Amino acid sequence: MKNLFNYLSLVLFFTCSIMVNAQIPTNEKQFLIDLHKSTGGEKWQNKWNLQADPSSWYGVEIADGHVTGLKLYRNNLKGKIPMGVSKLSHLKTLNLAFNILEGNLPNDFFQLEELTSLRLEMNKLTGALPKDYSQMKHLEELSMFNNLFQGTIPEGIGEMSNLKTLNLSSNYLEGSLPKSIEKLGKLEQLELFGNKLAGSIEVDLGRLVNLRELILSYNQFEGDLPSSMASLTNLEFVQLQGNDFRSLNSLLRMPSSKLAVFDSDDEFLNLKFGTTEASRTRIVDTKFEDTKRN
């Protein structure tokens, strides 16, 4: 009986060990190891012990046997993001902001169907933005400001029907504002400061009924602002300065009860909506502070 008890105890011990070490699928663990290797994991601020279980690795969140969160904000990741991120098919939050990541985004980056938050701001990522966002139906936050992205904002951006925050400020994006943006009916923040975007705005901004922040400053937009913008009742923060708009007269009837900041090149409107010099520092603040450390 004693031998049987010892045998069962041994079996239970090995079974528990296997269960712990098999907490996530092999392919998910392999991507994490690949990311560690390609971004200088030995020099990360918060290092991983690759011999330990992934559940103990800094920034890795696991639920129901899958990686659901990868939060390596300001962790001294330096290098390229490897292919294979789509193996993390249950990922909901991905935060690699404030690192030294470079190179193009992997082709499978926007195949994460469960993702709700993607933050890549303050890196050195290059290349064009992907064109296909059709699998990103759950994404609510896309923040990629202060990188080196070039090319146009693709029409496919309008496929992310649940998007609430779109921040592509301080890149090298050019071309016109894609009309598909007007399909983002849940959008609350649209921030495109400091790019090379140009031409007339053909987007029906009035369809973005939930918009609270609109930052288009320091681009090369021209023509008249869409008159429908005056119907937006939830706007709190507007910055339009540094463009070549012909007229902002369509904003004269814009409701101002919620406006905290309004900046433009039209001093009459700035006075009308109560702009102060203190408010002009807000652009700098939003570029560098992290208010939601996901």
Report what the structure shows.
The chain is an alpha/beta fold and 294 residues long. It has one domain: Alpha-Beta Horseshoe (Leucine-rich repeat, LRR (right-handed beta-alpha superhelix)), CATH 3.80.10.10. 16% of the residues lie in helices and 23% in strands. It is built from four helices and 18 strands. The strands form two sheets. Strands 1-2-4-6-8-10-12-14-16-18 form a ten-stranded mixed sheet, with no helix packed on it. It has an eight-stranded parallel sheet with strand order 3-5-7-9-11-13-15-17, with no helix packed on it. A hairpin with a 2-residue loop joins β1 and β2.
Keywords:
294 residues; alpha/beta; Leucine-rich repeat, LRR (right-handed beta-alpha superhelix); ten-stranded mixed β-sheet; 16% helix; 23% strand; elongated
Total strands: 18
**Mind telling me the CATH superfamily name?**
Ribonuclease Inhibitor
SSE string, helices as H and strands as E: HHEEEEEEEEEEEEEEEEEEHH
Q: Give, in spatial order, the strands making up the sheet with the most strands.
A: 1-2-4-6-8-10-12-14-16-18
Strand content: 15-25%
The number of domains is 1
What global shape is seen? elongated
Q: How many helices?
A: 4
Radius of gyration: 23 Å
CATH topology: Leucine-rich repeat, LRR (right-handed beta-alpha superhelix)
Mean pLDDT across the residues is 89
End-to-end span in angstroms? 53 Å
**Quaternary assembly:** single chain
Largest sheet: 10 strands, mixed
Helix content: 10-25%
Poorly predicted segments: 4-22, 278-294
Structural class: alpha/beta
The CATH architecture name reads Alpha-Beta Horseshoe
